[in-house]
Each structure stands twice: as structure tokens, then as C-alpha cells.
Amino acid sequence: MSPANPIIRVENVSKHFDTVAALSEVDLFIEPGEKVVIIGPSGSGKSTLLRTINRLESITAGSIVVDGFDLYSPSVDINKVRMEVGMVFQSFNLFPHMTVLRNLTIAPQKLKKMPVAEAEAMARRLLEKVGIPDKADVFPVKLSGGQQQRVAIARALAMSPKIMLFDEPTSALDPEMIGEVLDVMAALAREGMTMVVVTHEMGFAREVADRIIFMDGGRIVEEAPPAKFFTAPEHPRTQKFLEQIL
Ligand code: ADP
Ligand code: MG
Fold this sequence. Notes:
The protein has 9 helices and 10 strands. It has 246 residues and is α/β, with parallel strands linked by helices. The protein has one domain: Rossmann fold (3-Layer(aba) Sandwich). The strands form 2 sheets. It has a 6-stranded mixed sheet with strand order 6-7-8-3-9-10, with helices on both faces. A 4-stranded antiparallel sheet has the order 2-1-4-5, covered by helices on one side. β7, α6 and β8 (194-198) form a beta-alpha-beta unit. The structure holds adenosine-5'-diphosphate and magnesium ion. Adenosine-5'-diphosphate binds at residues 17, 20, 22, 40, 42-48. Magnesium ion (MG) binds next to α1.
């Protein structure tokens, strides 16, 4: 599948760690506003693929163009790219010595030279949006895992990214907190954000994804809209994986 005007264009990408082929000849084109969910067994290359879209990883072959930036060309301004692509990890990675508000304002102030009043007003709007407007002045250690992850999402949004990447954002959470984080992500999806999400939450995948990508052994084995993916997967490896998890 090759949309007319992709905002993310991954072409023939391979990535080796010594002898391990983490990615082999991956092609992936994502349209603006599209929601793509990536699933697959542990070690199949999901995180590596996501990380290459933010150039957190080098690649061995191929090319990745994000919103017109050729990520692996020597002349690319990687800081500009990273402002456009927000990323949320399994471990929340908040700055522990800063209040929640400061976690949200520091990057816009430093990287975008946003005035403090403007940054703080935006941060408060974002905390409202992720459902914790009352936590602005507390430190991350005082928050539950679900609240910390919602702060991490708000912090990524504070840079006004065009694309959000999520790498198993709920995998480190207690079960009762998974829903509140998925709800924030679903709301973001409804607003039209371009999202690439690695997750094991199949309910979320079914409801939010435009397209599901199944990876195994560093390759995209199958991709389809959720209705087809979950009811009529074509590849035996996809069928086996779904049998194991559903
Ligand atoms: P997934 O996210 O699907 O579990 P990863 O992308 O993390 O898979 O890993 C894909 C493969 O690359 C695995 O075999 C993993 O061991 C290997 N790998 C990932 N990161 C590194 C690294 N920094 N050094 C060496 N091998 C790595
Ligand atoms: Mg991973």
C-alpha cells in the first residue's frame, strides 16, 4: 500500500546489530492523520522500526523521509525533525527533579524560545486535556504510573508535533491504569494526529487503528485494516500469533 502523499516514508530499510537483522527490507508509507498499530512477537523489530522514524537508531540500508526530511541524509537538521515527531516510551522518562509543569515547559522554552507565560498556559491546557489539571505543581514521584504516562504524552504534545510515536505505552502500567492512558490516546486519534503505536492492547488496535502491521523476524509480514486483520488474517504466522494472544 502506497498512499499518494505520505508523511512517513520508510523505504527498503534494513538495520543490523552485528549479526542480528533487527529490520529487513521494511517498506512502510503512512498518510497524514493515519493511525497505524504495530504488533508482533518480542524481538520482531517493532521498537527498532519506531526508533528509526525518530532517528534514535542508525540504519544499515534504505531511506526514511518524514514530512519531507530525509532523516539519514548528513545535512538533515535532526532537532527540527524531533520537534515534529513526539515519542512516548514504555518507561515514562519524566524529569524527576522538575514539577509536572516544568516537565512540559522546558522543551518549548529552550528549543522553541517560547515565552514562559505562553509555555505555562499551553502546559496547563495540555494537563487539562490529559485529565490531570490539578497536578501541575507536583513532582513525578507523587503520581501514579497512569498519571505519569499521561504527563509524558502531554510533554510530547507540548512541542506541537505532527506525528506521535508510542512504544508500548501501557506495558509498564498496572491493569487498572491502562484504560486512562488509552483513552487519552484515542482522543488524540480523533483529533486527527498521525500516530504509530506499538501495543499489545488489541481492543485499542481494533477501535483506533486504520491499519494494523504485523511484524515477525524484522519484516512486515502482513498489514490490513483491523476488521480484516482480526477476522481473516492471511499469513500463517499472523494466524498463529493471533491464536496465542486472543
Ligand atoms: P521488539 O520491539 O519487537 O521486541 P526490537 O526492535 O527491540 O524488537 O529488537 C529487534 C531485534 O534487534 C532483537 O533481536 C533484539 O535483540 C535486537 N536489538 C534491538 N536493539 C539492540 C541493540 N541496541 N543491540 C543489539 N541488538 C539489539
Ligand atoms: Mg519493543
